[in-house]
Design a protein that fits this description.
Immunoglobulin-like, four-stranded antiparallel β-sheet, Immunoprotect_excell_Ig-like, membrane, transmembrane, DUF4352
């Protein structure tokens, strides 16, 4: 007597199909999210002149996103900032950049001094020294300061650079995700 043919089980194939559809769906969602995020990052800080474009000069307003920045002055004369116990000593010398940040948007925007970068003539990037920034701005005017539409704050960013180093530009950002705008420093 011949045995009847074995029935193939369908559930492994159905399970495999479900897993494949889930993986493809996740890849599709991931691609859309990354693509959307990349597009948002690419356009977040673009200026009319283009990404990271040099925008004017010291004393002239330059825009990135919802902020308009005006760099007023630079000071290389300090090797220590703050008072007594709270004083912060530079490893080299401090370059203190005084600026005005104005919210040109239609909602509150938080300014973060640590998102701002400075460069020397060789293109070496320097980060804002948060501890020195807090010491020099006794009122914390540039540390995570929320600025309402139409309002502006004046504060100082502090860069600890090797002695003899001169910064040639500063890249200012409306947020850590924006492209930024470069302003030459003189």
């Amino acid at each position: 007597m011949a045995q009847p043919p074995k029935k193939r089980k369908k559930w492994p194939w159905i399970l495999l199909a479900v897993v494949v559809v889930m993986i493809l769906g996740c890849v599709g969602i991931f691609t859309m999210v990354i693509g959307g995020t990349k597009e948002a990052l690419d356009t977040a800080g673009d200026t009319a002149a283009g990404k990271n474009a040099v925008a004017g000069a010291m004393g002239q307003p330059a825009r990135d996103g919802k902020f308009e920045f005006t760099v007023k002055s630079m000071d290389y004369t300090k090797t220590s900032v703050g008072q007594s116990v709270l004083a912060v000593k530079a490893q080299g010398t401090f370059c203190i950049v005084t600026m005005t940040i104005k919210n040109i948007g239609d909602e509150a925007q938080t300014f973060d001094g640590t998102s701002q970068k400075a460069y020397d003539a060789k293109g070496t990037q320097y980060s804002d020294d948060l501890e020195a920034e807090l010491a020099v701005n006794g009122d914390a005017s540039t540390f995570l300061q929320q600025i309402n539409p139409g309002n502006q704050v004046t504060g100082k960013l502090v860069y600890d650079v090797p002695k003899g180093t001169k910064l040639t530009s500063i890249e200012l950002h409306d947020s850590m995700f924006s492209s930024g705008v470069k302003i030459p420093l003189k």
